[in-house]
Amino acid sequence: MRLALFGGTFDPIHLGHVEAALAAADAHSLDRVLVAPCGVPPHKRSACRAPYRHRLRMVELACKEDSRLIASGLDEPREGGAPNYSVDTVERALATLRFEEPLRFIVGADAFSEIGTWRDAERVASLVEFLVVGRPWPDANSPSPPTARAARSVECAHPASSSAVRHRAKIGGTLADLAPPDVCAYIWQHALYRPEPNTMGP
Fold first, then answer.
1. DSSP conformational letter for 7
2. Residues 26-73 pLDDT 10s
3. Which of 13, 20, 44, 142 stands 20 to 30 A from 178 (CA)?
């Protein structure tokens, strides 16, 4: 089985994420894409607007779009609130899952451009084949960084973003063009990303 791991905050997951996962599956003949929301992102420790349980549930709903997409708790919050590092998640996948190597790792071009800041970046690069959504490096003629030796591109240009979903939800706008229907319904049902009620009085 050809497997890819697709991590991120998914706060919330949107159509761009879904299309990127499916584009990677189509382009690289993947049997399964594990979509694993990050418990405590190292670079955004206090930035997640929705708790992990809500983010995981929205991923589960989004993965109903295609049988190749599997919601995964592989990157669930660690004991004591420690940050989730990609190197730990990859090593956990290698130790616990059965698949045809190499393990593919789907990542957005923006995140990939910051790979030098990742913990044990060279270790991660030695364990996975990166599938980078968008252009992996700024110029096609420029040399790739050492950690990008196994990087391959995935073309996907859906304009949705998590920040756009959060903004629309905050102001009560439509989400239909940004997120899967069940995810939209879940956001409204649980009043996610809505303004905090004013408890200070006039």
1. E
2. 999 999 999 999 999 987 656 789 999 999 999 999 999 899 999 999
3. 44
Give the DSSP letter string of 42-53: TT-TTT-SS-HH
**Lateral strand order in the sheet of 152-154:** 69-71, 32-37, 2-8, 100-108, 128-133, 152-154
Q: Which two tokens stand for residue 36?
A: 């694993």
Q: Which two tokens stand for residue 106?
A: 């789907």
> 29 is written with which tokens?
């003949």
125-141: pLDDT as tens digits: 999 999 999 854 454 44
Angle between helices 52-62 and 181-189 (to 10 degrees): 150
| Alpha-carbon span 194 to 173, nearest angstrom | 11
**Exposed, middle or buried, 65 (CB in 10 Å: 0-12/13-18/19+)?**
middle
